[in-house]
Specification:
It contains five helices and four strands; from the N terminus they run αααβαββαβ.
Length: 153
C-alpha cells in the first residue's frame, strides 16, 4: 500500500476486470455513476441506493477510477480502421480539434481492400471532453470502421 508521502512516480496502476474486484470497489463506481449522471443529487442518496456506507465510499472514491478517466492529462495513441475516401482523415482531425486534443503524430498505412489503419497520438491535458466521449464521437464519423485506444503514457 502506498502512503501519501510516496512519490507520484512510484504509484502503480492495474487494469482489472470489474468482476474480479471486491464488491466494495464496484459499489463505489456505481455511486460515482449515479452522481455523474444526475440520477442521485447527493452522496448520501447515492450510497443509500447502492447499499454502501459513506465511510467506504470516501475511503475508496479517489482510488477507484474507470479506465477512461485515467487518460486525462496524458499521451494517448488511438488506432482507427477507416475506409479509403477523400476527407476521412480531415473528419478525424476536426473532431480531435473540437475536443481540444493536441495532435502529436499521425500515421496512415496504405489502404488494402479499401481500408487503411491510422494511428494518432494526442495529448489529453487540455481536452474539453472525456476520452470515452471522444472515442464515441470518432466512431460516428462516416467511414470510420473502428476506433480504440492503443496505448497511453
Amino acid at each position: 500500500m502506498l502512503k501519501d508521502s510516496d512519490k507520484q512516480s512510484d504509484i502503480e496502476y492495474y487494469l482489472v476486470k470489474a468482476e474480479m474486484l471486491p464488491e466494495v470497489f464496484c459499489k463505489v463506481m456505481a455511486v460515482k455513476r449515479l452522481l455523474s449522471s444526475g440520477k442521485a443529487v447527493s452522496i448520501n442518496e447515492a450510497v443509500k441506493r447502492i447499499g454502501l456506507s459513506r465511510s467506504a465510499y470516501y475511503k475508496y472514491k479517489d482510488a477507484v477510477l474507470p479506465f477512461y478517466e485515467t487518460t486525462q492529462g496524458r499521451l494517448v495513441t488511438l488506432i482507427f480502421t477507416v475506409e479509403n475516401f477523400p476527407g476521412i482523415l480531415s473528419g478525424i482531425i476536426n473532431s480531435l480539434a473540437n475536443a481540444k486534443a493536441n495532435v502529436l503524430t499521425i500515421n496512415q498505412n496504405i489502404p488494402i481492400n479499401g481500408l487503411a489503419d491510422v494511428s494518432v497520438s494526442i495529448e489529453t491535458d487540455r481536452m474539453n471532453t472525456k476520452i470515452k466521449n471522444l472515442l464515441d464521437n470518432l466512431e460516428r464519423i462516416p467511414g470510420v470502421r473502428s476506433c480504440r485506444m492503443l496505448a497511453r503514457d
